[in-house]
Specification:
This protein is of the alpha/beta class and 184 residues long. The protein has a single domain (5-176), classed as Leucine Aminopeptidase, subunit E, domain 1, CATH 3.40.220.10. The chain has 5 helices and 6 strands; from the N terminus they run ββααββαβαβα. It has helices at 36-45, 47-54, 92-109, 129-146, 160-171; strands at 8-12, 22-27, 64-68, 76-81, 114-117, 152-157. Helix 3 runs parallel beside helix 4 (129-146) and helix 4 (129-146) packs across helix 5 (160-171). The two termini are 17 Å apart. Mean pLDDT is 95; it is low at 180-184. Bound molecules: adenosine-5-diphosphoribose. The site of adenosine-5-diphosphoribose (APR) has 26 residues, from strand 2 and helix 1.
């Protein structure tokens, strides 16, 4: 089995273009869409995603739920709800880590092998990038260390600042070259 660092990739790009088993949406508790990556996923995936979300009765912060990806190149969308950053003293770090863990647990439950994450909570929800990246990579790397069924996790960052923050965090786990190649 590949080491943890070899199963983590960090790339700059658009999450909605990822041809993986599941992309993870940075949603809100209603699961009825929004701006940012949530808006991009619903726009790209079409009405089928919203119709599926409507049956889920929302999602608590730190939890994750799965739907079809509609017209998107991925097979599924795993919707998770990150914490709104206040000051880091209101449980935000643990809630953010739980978003990544729960999303990976849902992927494992559905037999999925490749998953792509955005920088959850690091946009509208105001999580500082350096901290948000470290929590994300640590949570994913720790999970991969005990769960071999996930073959590849990609962090897909929309801008160069986020990319650099995640590249540095992933480097501490020996993550491989950031070649951005198709994960299939
Ligand atoms: N691909 C990859 N990353 C993206 C994309 C995209 N197409 N669009 C935006 N991002 C990045 C943002 O630049 C940011 O780094 O995703 C990260 C998360 O930002 P948001 O989408 O604002 O998500 P979040 O901070 O978790 O806030 C969630 O925003 O859109 C609403 O409905 C959503 O209320 C919820 C809140």
């Amino acid at each position: 089995m590949k080491g943890v660092g070899e199963r983590i990739e960090v790339v700059q790009g658009d999450l909605t273009h990822e041809a993986v088993d599941a992309i993870v949406n940075a949603a809100n508790r209603s699961l009825l869409g929004g701006g940012g990556v949530d808006g991009a996923i619903h726009r790209g995936g079409g009405r089928a995603i919203l119709d599926a979300c409507r049956k889920l009765n929302g999602c608590e912060t730190g939890d994750a739920k799965i739907t079809t990806a509609g017209a998107l190149p991925s097979r599924y969308v795993i919707h998770t709800v990150g914490p709104v950053y206040q000051d880091g003293q209101h449980g935000e770090p643990e809630l953010l880590a739980r978003c990544y863990r729960r999303s990976l647990e849902v992927a494992v439950t559905h037999g999925l092998k490749t998953i792509a994450f955005p920088a959850i909570s690091c946009g509208v929800y105001g999580y500082p990038l350096t901290e948000g990246a470290r929590i994300a990579v640590d949570a994913v790397a720790t999970f991969l260390g005990r769960e071999e069924s996930i073959h590849r996790v990609r962090f897909v960052l929309f801008d160069s600042v986020a990319f650099e923050a995640f590249r540095q965090a992933a480097g501490e786990w020996g993550a491989g070259p950031q070649d951005g190649s198709d994960p299939r």
